[in-house]
Write a structure and sequence with these properties.
Length: 107
């Protein structure tokens, strides 16, 4: 489980899906598509947290809460490297070969 903390003081969200392009999260607070959301989260095994500004691109049906698809806007190079390593490691843990571009992942 990856806890995603909005930097606007609202309650934390939980990542359900993660890729180099963005996050799928469950939130207690709905946000409309187009809304910008600055966030901070730490990947398992990483010392430094990733800070990113995300844009809500879609609302997603989930069993509880509100599902949001968030797209990263301009990740720092080190944050992108962390995400690529994490995504590739998840594929390998499942005994699969990651896609060549490393853009697809999950939590």
């Amino acid at each position: 489980m990856i806890r995603v903390q909005p930097l606007d003081g609202t309650p934390a969200m939980i990542a359900q899906d993660l890729s180099v392009g963005g996050l799928g999260v469950t939130s207690r607070r709905p946000r409309w598509p187009g809304t910008l959301v600055p966030v901070r989260f730490r990947l398992p095994g990483e010392r430094l947290a990733i800070r990113a500004t995300c844009r809500v691109v879609d609302l997603v049906e989930v069993p509880a809460g509100t599902g949001l698809s968030l797209m990263f806007l301009g990740l720092a190079p080190e944050a992108e490297r962390q995400l690529r390593r994490f995504v590739a490691s998840r594929w390998i843990e499942e005994g699969q070969v990651p896609p060549g571009n490393g853009d697809v992942g999950y939590v």
